[in-house]
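Hi V.,

You were right to ask for the full record rather than a summary. Here it is.
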Amino acid sequence: MVAGETIAAVATAGGTGAVALIRLSGPEAAEIAARACACGGEWDDRRAVLRTVRDESGGVIDQVLVTLFHAPRSYTGDTVAEIATHGGRLVTRRVLERLLECGARSAQPGEFTERAFLNGKLDLTQAEAVMDLISAQSDLSIRAAHEQLEGKIGERTEKLRQELIDTVANLEAWIDFPEEDIDPETGAAMRKRVSGVGDEIRSLLSTADQGRILREGLRTVICGRPNAGKSSLMNQLLGSERAIVSTTEGTTRDTIEEMLVIDGVPVRMVDTAGLREAGDEIEEEGIRRTLKEAERADLLIVVVDATLPPEGAMPARLPEVARRIVVLNKSDLGEHSGWASTEGVRVSCLDGKGLDELRAQVRVLADLGEADWGEHSVAINARHRDQLMRAEEALKRADANLAANAEAEITALDLREAMECLGEIAGKIDTEEILGSIFSRFCIGK
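Predicted structure:
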C-alpha cells in the first residue's frame, strides 16, 4: 500500500442486481469523483447527490448517486466517495474504469480495511471481525463477529497489556534507578499480579475451539459400513440429493463435503466411503481417506444398519474422537435385539423419523458455551490463540523467575515478551509507553 494514493473498487458482490456500489478512498476521492462526473469539486458531506458519469468524450456511462465522507469521518479515515450505480456487470465495470482513468488506483484485497486500521479507525481484531461478519453462516457467528467488531477482544487484551506495562515499568524503575526512593512491589504481590493476567489469558484461550467452530464449522464426519445409509443421512440433513444413494455397496468412493447450519451451529458435514475390506485399489484409497477424515473430525457420526446384529454392522478401526453419536438407521424396518442396550439415535432416513433428535444431539455436542457468554460472545481466532499461548508461556517463565528470586532483568524480559504478544493481537505495540509510565509515575530525572 502506498500512502497518499486514492484507491477504487466495487464494494458489492459480482453479478446482476438493482444497484452496485463503488468505493473511492484517498486524498483525491472528491476530485476524482468530480472529474468522472464532469462537475465541480465541491461536495456536501454525507449527502447523496445525483450525478452523471461520463467518458472522456462526454458520453453518458451511467446516472449515479454520489455520497462523500470527508476525512477523518469515514470508514477508512481518509476521504471516501461512495458511488451507487445501476447493478449490471458492464455498467459497473465501465464506471470503475472511468474512475481509474481519472486518477484512482485499483484497490488491493482488504486495502480499505487496512487503511482503517492504519488510520486508527479499527484495531486488528476489529479488522478481522469485518471478514468474520461477511463470512458468518449462523446467528451465533454473527453475534460473535459483532462483539469482536465492537472491540471486545481488543479491549480485554489491551487491559491485560496495560497491567503488564505497569508491572514492567515498576520493575525496570527499580533496576535502572536504585538510588531513587521507590518502593517496589514485593515479589509475592508481583506474582499475584502476573498470575491474574495469566488467568485472564487462559480464559480467552478457552474460547479458541468455539471460535474455530463459529468460523469454520463443526467438522462432522459421517462414517460406517457400506449400505448403512450414510449418504441418505447426509441428503436428509442437507435437504437435497447431494450424495448418490444406491443399494450397491461401495457407491461412495471419495469424501463429499457440504456446509449447513443445525440449530444455529455451522456444521461442515463430510460423507465418506464405507468401511470394510476393500475390493480394489480405488476403494482402498476411499477407505484410507475415510479414516483420515475421521481422525480430523470434531464430531463422528457412526451410522449402522440397525436391522443387522451389532457384530456385523458396527465398523472397525474407528479412531477415538471425543464427540461421537451412534445413529441406528433403518428403524422403520425393525431393530435387531442386539442393539437394545446401545445408546444412540434411532433414525429412519426413509421417513425422516429421529432427525430432529439427531440435530439436537449435534447441537449439544457442539458445546459452544453461549449460555455462559452473558453480554459478550468472545471467541478468539487462530492468530489470537498463537499470541496468547506465547504470552502465557512467557508469564510462566516470569512467575518461575520471581519464585526463584532470579535476576530482575530476566523477569523483565519475559514480561516484555508477554506484553508484546498481547500488543500484537490488537496491533498496539509501543515500547515507549514503558518509559512514559516510569517518568510520569515516579518523577524520575527531576
